[in-house]
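Task: complex structure prediction.
Instruction: return structure tokens for all chains below.
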Amino acid sequence: MATPITIGISACLVGQNVRYDASSKTSHFCVKELGEHVQYRSFCPEVAIGLPVPRPTIRQIKKQDMILVSRPDGSGEVTEALAEYGKRVAKIAEKFSGYIFCAKSPSCGMERVKVYSEDGKGSTSDGIGVFAEQIMKANPILPCEENGRLNDQVIRENFVARVFAYRNWQQLVASGITKHKLMTFHSQYKYTVMSHDLVAYKSLGRLLAQANLDVNDMAEQYITGLMTALKVKATRKKHANTLQHLQGYFSRQLNPMQRQELVEQISAYRTGLVPLVVPLTLIKHYLMTFPNKYLNRQSYLNPYPEELKLRYGY
Ligand code: SF4
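Output:
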């Protein structure tokens, strides 16, 4: 049996009552939908460093040039303890294929965490959770997201696609990387990259064409480039452009009516009349009638389990 995909997650998001008021913040999507396809390793950094449940709230406070985490009155400072624990979990997270953080938390928030002024009279929303920062700093290409942002259909799809792509990459590395395997991997991800970032699509191709580059250096540059490209939002325009390229592979085999239907569905998707799943389903249908080995291997057509229904909403 294949090893399941492992994702790190803030413990309160999977229903553990570890928050300051002994509640949880269960994410339906994480538990009931994505949870069917991955296994989670949950961490509550505040409990892990010895804070009780329930506990007084803590916040990020700016003191001169430093951001400290403590109770609002400045007592019970835990900045260092959270950072140290973050460094330990960051090592474990090297094996993960993604991480989901609980938004806004001074420990777990990925971005836009509230940072209070020392006198408590003002705040900015530009902090990063002290624990989360360590995970992301040590694992810069690990797909990371927050529970709140995952309610957005596009961000949700983007995160899950990155997780599955990264997981495929980790398996490739584990099997021993060669230039040939690298080329094969890239050929499978060509249209996925095209739907996110056309410039990266071209530059990744050029990178793999460098005959004198050491394979490990090439692999490192490739996966950094790929994961960076996949973070770029895939718009309707870019998807429609990618669909047109796919259509080009078998359009000569289609009769005029089939060709016209596909053109119309791609156009309807481009203008927002139908979701992405509509032209994609038609392309997959035609691919069954007119098989094409190259297209069948494209991750773009099957980036993650169909049951997640991530291409139905946009
Ligand atoms: S946000 Fe992080 S620190 Fe706070 S309860 Fe959830 S897991 Fe624990």
